[in-house]
Write a structure and sequence with these properties.
Layout (H helix, E strand, L loop, with lengths): L3 E4 L2 E4 L6 H7 L1 H14 L6 H14 L3 E5 L2 H11 L7 E5 L5 H9 L2 E5 L10 H7 L4 E4 L11 H11 L2 E5 L7 E2 L2 E2 L6 E5 L13 E5 L2 H10 L4 E3 L2 E2 L10 H32 L14 E2 L5 E4 L3 H10 L29 H9 E4 L7 H14 L19
Parallel strand pairs: 4-5, 4-6, 6-7, 7-10
Antiparallel strand pairs: 1-2, 3-11, 8-9, 8-14, 10-11, 12-13, 15-16
Helix pairs in contact: 2-9, 3-9, 4-5, 4-8, 9-12
Bound molecules: pyridoxal-5'-phosphate (PLP).
Length: 396
């Protein structure tokens, strides 16, 4: 339950940054029935629901194959392994991403080459990618950050020119499209995470590799399952990196709701655009013309980020920062030899970006409450001449 308390003229509520409970409650019966059915079958590892979910997710993304794996980071590592990219190879990754993208490259044995991002859409900067290509470069990993695709026109062109593979990190972009093509079907391989808070999230960990390549599909199938080609025939040095049947059962239910959930995120975004339009101190998200955005995050930029964040917290609104430190500033990646100043765009963004709550269950009253607090902070209360949104709420 939200605690509702009055404050000046407006109503403020405690609004969490994510609300997984609300989502679960909306589909509780479907999920528990699916999980119970899987448990009764007892096919816990690579069971019926895994095969069915792979089929359904492949259709959703538009690839011939989809292979369920243990997590998003494992999807990325297995993609590299299946392409025989390891020691001696270089792989281009963005500075502004969740660290898993870079750690997957390290785990493969290849060398991550970090590149800065675009200041408004947060994707890999194509000009900088081009400059980072060397004789050892084997692949580019564009991360479709926040819910929209990178500039894939340019990235595909660079890859083609230099004979590189493209592995899409679509962990934040389930259902997003670029030129009408679904993320995860654009490059050679797509990698997804089903971490609970993603647009499509499991009740635990999970991931998926998508591809049209027969060879990649065969190798990922083998590498995720101890390198087996048939029972107790181990043809490659694989590992255990499988998607659980119970998670697949949950994900099958949730995949059916994903289009409606992504649409609801889009409606929340529209409301933010409408209500924050006249606040000059903040920059609202920019969607590239070729893209449909699935708003995994609704990220605004402001010079006064920390003050705004504290003000929202005091008003009961939880926010996030993605990410407070670019990957090259993390201690775990110190050996890459970068320092402050290496990737100025990502560094500047890390001090300006603020992620506002966005999820399918977020209601119009909550968005109004958040926007009221933001406008209050910057000294732009609702204009008496413009309609206060509470007067004419549009259902979302
Ligand atoms: C969540 C995420 C991952 C890692 O996914 P896990 O399932 O947690 O391993 C990788 N890349 C990006 C961009 C992510 O957001």
């Amino acid at each position: 339950m939200y605690v509702i308390r009055a404050r000046s003229e407006s109503i403020f509520m405690d609004i969490p940054f994510t609300n997984l409970r609300a989502q679960f409650l909306s589909i509780e019966q479907e999920v528990t029935a699916a999980v119970t059915a899987a448990m009764r079958r007892c096919d816990y590892v690579l069971g019926e629901d895994v095969a069915a979910f792979e089929e359904e997710f492949g259709k959703f993304v538009g690839t011939k194959y989809a292979l369920g794996v243990a997590s998003g980071v494992e999807a990325l590592r297995l993609a590299l392994v299946a392409l025989d990219i390891g020691a001696g190879a270089e792989v281009i990754v963005p500075a502004n991403t969740f660290i898993a993208t870079v750690l997957a490259v390290e785990a493969s044995g290849a060398h991550p080459v970090v590149v800065d991002c675009t200041p408004d859409t947060y994707g890999l900067s194509p000009e900088l990618v081009e400059r980072a290509v060397t004789g050892r470069t084997r692949a580019i990993i564009p991360v479709h950050l926040m819910g929209q695709a990178c500039d894939m026109d340019q990235i595909l062109r660079i890859a083609e020119t230099h004979g590189l593979r493209v592995i899409e990190d679509a962990a934040q972009a389930h259902g997003a499209t670029w030129q009408g093509r679904t993320c995860g079907s654009i490059g050679d391989i797509g990698c997804f995470s089903f971490y609970p808070s993603k647009n499509l999230g499991a009740c635990g960990d999970g991931g998926m590799v998508t591809t049209n390549s027969d060879q990649v599909a065969r190798l990922v199938r083998q590498f995720r399952h101890y390198g087996q080609s048939a029972e107790y025939e181990h043809v490659v040095p694989g590992w255990n990196s499988r998607l659980d049947t119970i998670q697949a059962a949950v994900l099958r239910v949730k995949l059916r709701h994903l289009p409606e959930w992504n649409a609801a995120r889009g409606r929340c975004a529209e409301l933010y655009f409408q209500f924050l339009d006249e606040v000059p101190e903040i920059a609202l998200p920019v969607t590239a013309a070729a893209n449909t955005h699935v708003y995994h995050r609704f990220v605004i930029q402001t010079e006064r980020r920390d003050g705004l964040r504290a003000h929202l917290a005091a008003a009961g609104v939880e926010t996030g920062v993605h990410y407070p430190s670019p990957v090259h500033m993390q201690k775990a990646l110190k050996h890459l030899g970068h320092s402050r100043g290496s990737f100025p765009v990502a560094e500047a963004l890390s001090g300006r970006m603020l992620s506002l709550p966005i999820y399918p269950e977020l209601g119009i009253r909550e968005v109004i409450s958040i926007c009221t607090a933001i406008r209050e902070y910057f000294g732009h209360p609702w204009d008496a001449h413009s309609d206060h949104p509470a007067e004419s709420p549009q259902p979302i």
